[in-house]
Every structure is written in structure tokens, then in C-alpha cells.
Fold Glycosyl transferase.
Amino acid sequence: MQHLLNPPDPVSKNRSCDFSDTGLPPGSVCLFAAFAPDGILPIFTRFYLKNILNCGFILHLVLSGETPADKETIVFCKKNNIHVWQRPNGGMDFGAWRFLLQKNVAAQAPYILLANDSVFGPFQPLADVLKQARAYALPAWGLVASRLVTPHLQSWFVGLSQQTLQTAPVQRVFSLPFEHMSRNEIIWHGELGLSVALQEAGIPLQAAWSDLQSPLARFLPTNPMHTHWYSLAVSGQVPFIKRELLRNNSFAISNLHQWPEVIPPACGFNPQWVTDSFCKNESRPVPAATTAKGRTLYNLISTADGLRWKVGHLKRFIR
């Protein structure tokens, strides 16, 4: 059953952010998709949500799963004025975002952020990242743009203006029945399809980090959240690590044990949260099988990426 745990308020009660300082238009909305089969919102996801609130967003959270939200989750959301929706799991993130768009929670929002719980972080204030990138001034913006398969914004963090959302190609994407699609179909029609739709509408794919113009990526495209995980996180440019990467490491990346190095002690994110999550038997899709060639390529690029960052940082320190 789909139901609302605390009803929406037309005006955000969040007052932790000065809109004139961040550039975020008042009334902007974040649609956040979380997979919660046990009805529990993990502490690292709560940390992420509080960072989103500190940017000034009105936050709508979708918990996908059959078990109702537990008491701690409900208390946390009420305390932070988060509007919580529950729905059966189906359609993954695009199914959850489509569900909220059909509820018209973003109909009057000048800016819409699509995000999900597939990452650990942020490891620096999210408001600073978005402000420095002038993300809110762009018609479409993501944290990562990749050439893998086809040029696209990785959908785990994408911001759209209301005008962009209302373009016919983008509207067609969010009219698709994601809840009846397989995981691969959702990737093709949702994540990749959204970026194809943006380009069809004449909207460029802009991001905090992009390999769209990289000569190497034209010939050897990879998932940068795997191959460049170290420099992206430690630089603060994309201050997140994908949960799937640490949980499965399907490409057997050899330097992944260095992940605690990218989390600054003063950022507020506790590395123990990551360790504790590994102890739980998370019900997640099994990653696609990788080849020996792919594992070798990902290892070479990831190792070079980490070394390049460390050498560059050492040179700056010596100077």
C-alpha cells in the first residue's frame, strides 16, 4: 500500500540555509529514493539526508519496501521535516521518482534534485559542492558524467530545472512504467534514456566531473565511480563512494582497501558506518559478471588514479 507518513507542507520549514548564499531557488525540492525492505533508514543515509536539507531543499523521501518504516525512522523524519512516502519495491529509483512526480510534489518547484541511497557520503558539505559548481544555475547538472555505453549523467545525483523537467523528451522518460521493467531495462530507458532525452531537448550534460571530452574515455570508457573512486572522493569534487563498489568490488580493484583515507576526520561521516553495513546481509541485485580484461583495465586505471593524486598532493605539500 502507498501511503504518506507525514503530510506535505507547501513551505519548507528548513531554515538552516541562506538561499541568497547558495543560489538555490526557494521552494526547490529533492526527490530521494531509498530501498528499505526492513523499514529502516540507516544512519549513513540519515547523514546524507541532513546534508541535503542543509542545502535548503524541501525533501520528499520514498521508502521502497513491504515493511512499514520503523519508529526511529519516523521520528528522524518528523524532527527534520522530511516528507515520507512508502511504496512497494518496484521500478528502482526511477519508479520511486515517477511515483512522487505523479503526486505533483514537485509541480511548483523551480529546481528538482533526484538522488538515491546508493552512496556513502558526502565527505564534505554538500552545499559547498553545489555552490562552487553553480549547479542551480544550469538546466541539468549531475555529479558525474560518463561515456560508458553512451554519454550520460549518472542518475544517482541529478538536478533539473522545472523548465527542463517539463520538456517533452524528459516527460516521456518519466511516463514510462518502470515498475514493470527489469533492472537492465531501467538502466537503458531510465538512466541512459534521461540523458538521451536531455540532449534531444538541446540541453547539455554538465557535471562536477566529466570524461565526456576525454580522449582515453572515447576508446576505453569505464565507470568513473569505480576507476576514479579515490581522486573523486579525496579531492572533494565528488565526495561520495558507491556502496556497490565497496560491497561487491566486482572488478577486484586492488587499492580499494584504502577507502578510509578519503574520509576527512572532521567531515562528520563515521567510517564505522561503512564497516557496520558490511556486516548486514543486504538484499541487492547481483552485479554483472566481469571479464579478466575488464578487471585488468579497471585495476590499472584505478591504481594510476590513486598514485597520481598522491604524487600531486605530495608535490604541493613540498612546495
Notes: Residues 7-20 have pLDDT under 50 and may be disordered. The radius of gyration is 19 Å. The domain at 3-210 is CATH 3.90.550 (Spore Coat Polysaccharide Biosynthesis Protein SpsA; Chain A).
